[in-house]
Amino acid sequence: MTEAVYNWKDRGYLATYINKSGSFASVRIYPPGSVLVDLQSYGAEEKNEDHHLLNELEERMRELFQNNITRVKRLPAITRGGAIDRYWPTADGRLVEYDIDNIVYDEESPYQNIKILHSKQFGNILILNGDVNLAESDLAYTQAIMGSGKEDFSGKEVLILGGGDGGILYEMVKLKPKMVTMVEIDQMVIDGCKKYMRKTCGDVLDSLQGNCYQVLVEDCIPVLKRYAKDGQTFDYVINDLTAVPISTSPEEDSTWEFLRLILDLSMKVLKRDGKYYTQGNCVNLTEALALYEEQLNRLCCPVEFSKETVCIPSYMELWVFYTIWKTGL
Amino acid sequence: MTEAVYNWKDRGYLATYINKSGSFASVRIYPPGSVLVDLQSYGAEEKNEDHHLLNELEERMRELFQNNITRVKRLPAITRGGAIDRYWPTADGRLVEYDIDNIVYDEESPYQNIKILHSKQFGNILILNGDVNLAESDLAYTQAIMGSGKEDFSGKEVLILGGGDGGILYEMVKLKPKMVTMVEIDQMVIDGCKKYMRKTCGDVLDSLQGNCYQVLVEDCIPVLKRYAKDGQTFDYVINDLTAVPISTSPEEDSTWEFLRLILDLSMKVLKRDGKYYTQGNCVNLTEALALYEEQLNRLCCPVEFSKETVCIPSYMELWVFYTIWKTGL
To answer: So what's the pLDDT on residue A249?
Structure first.
C-alpha cells in the first residue's frame, strides 16, 4: 500500500492510499469537521471486502472520536465502466440508480440512440438519447396523455404525433375510435418496442394498419402541413414527441420556435371543439414549464390550457401534462 | 497542482491531481479501455468551474482518441458533508437523490431519529431512522393500506397500529367509521407531523380524540394484549408500523418472531370476517417478501392473503401491500 498525505492548510488534509490490486482510497478532512472517505475498487469481487473495510473504519473512527460523531452516512457503491449502466439522471438533474439487470436492445437509428433496458420492477424501459421515455410499468403516462379517462373517444378521429412505443395507440384502439392515425418518424423505435415493450403496445404495432388505425412512418411536420392544406381535421391531437422533437427538416431557428410550429399546425388540424394533449416536463423545471406556457400565448389562434401533475413510476419524478383547446373562434 | 502517477501494471494506471484550493482529481485507466475521472471540489462555488473543466476534458479526450470513444457518461455531482442530505437510498439499496431543499424537523425521540425534510416536488417527507416513511405526495400509500377503496368503513370499528403521520386516521374519519383507535408509540412523531405534514394528516392530530376516533400514545403490544384479554374486537386492523417495529418490551428473539407476535395478537382482536391490512416491502426484495409470507403460514390461526403492488411517489420504487383474513374458523 502506497500512502501520500497532502496538507491544504486552512482547507484541510488529503490522504491517498493505493494498493497493488487496483484499489484506491482517499480520505479528505475538511474544516470544521467533515471526513470524506472514498473507496474505489477494481472488479465486482471486492465489493464485500469493501463493505467489511468500511465497517471497520467506521468503528475505528467512533473509537478515535470517542463517539463524538454527529452524523455518519454511507452511500451505496457506484458501479462504473461495466456493460450495464444503471444511472439515468432525472430531467431535473438528480442522480438516480435503476435496478437494471439486462440490455434488451441497443441500436443507433438514423435519428437517435435507442435503448431498451430491463428493470426488475419497472419491466423494459425505452430510453431515447439517454432520456427515460417509458417503461412497461408506466400505464399512468399513457392514461395522463389521453386525458386521464375524462374523454369519450368512441367514434372519434385521433392523431398521434410520435408515440413509437405504441402505448397510446394500444390503449386508444380499445376505446373504439373511428380512426387513429399515428405519425412516428423512427421505424427502429417501432421495431424495438413491438418486440420488447409488449406490455405497453400489445400486438398493435405488429401491423402498421388495423381496423381503426394506421401508422405512418414519417416526419410529422410535412404530414401536418398536408392535412392542414387538405382541410383534414381531428377531434384529438396527442403530441407524444420527445422533449426536443426530431425532424428531418428543422426549418426553425430554436427549439421553442419548432415547438410552436408543431402547436400551430396541430391547432390547424384540430376541430373547433377538439382537444390537444401533450406531456410537459418534470414538475420541478418551473422555468421550462413557464416558457412553454408563454409559447401558448403566441400561437396563430387563441388557446386555453389546463395541466395535471402525475406520478410516472419509472421517472422517479412527478410529470406535468397539458390539455390545450381553441377559444374565441 | 501536484501530480502523481501510479502504475498498476496489468490492472492499469492511476494519476492523482491536487490543487492548492482544496480540489482533488483522479484519473484511472483500466484495461481493456475504461477511463474513470473523478473531480472533487471543496465548496459549492466551484461547481460551474467543474462543469467547464469536464467539458474541456471530454473534448480533449475525443481529440486524443480521434473519436474512437464508444461511450461517455457523466454523472451529476454528489454533494457531501453539507447540512442538507439529499441521498436516501431505496429499500433495495439503490442510490437515489431527492430534491430536498430544507430541513423542517430533526429530532431524536426516545425511540428513533425523526426527520421531516422538504422536497420541492413531494412536499414534506417523514424519515424515521433514515427510512423514507411517507411524503405529503403519498396519498397512494394511505389508499393502498386502506384496501384501495374496495371497503366500506362506515359504521365499522378500526384499529390502527402505528400510523403516527396521521394519514390513515385522516382519510379514515372521512369515511364515517363507528370508531377508530390509533396506537402510536412516539409522541414526537405525532408532534412533528401535526405541524409539518398537514397535507397528510389535516387537523386530525390536533387533538388525541374526536367524534369517532382516539389516539393512544402507547406501545401497541400491551394494548393488543389488553384487547385480546378483554375480548374487544375490530372489523379492521391496519398495521402501519415501521419495517422493523419498535417496542418498549421486545420479548421475542428475532424480528420475524416479533412480527409474528403482532400478527397473532392482531388476529385475536380481528372479527371473524375482519380484514388486516399492512405494507410489505419493496417489490424487488423477493426474499424478504417470501419470508413474510412464510410467517403467515405459522400463525395461531389459519389465514389467507392477497397482495397488490403500488407506486408510491416519494419511494422511487414499487411497494407491496398485503390484505390478510382468517379462514376455516
So the answer is: 60
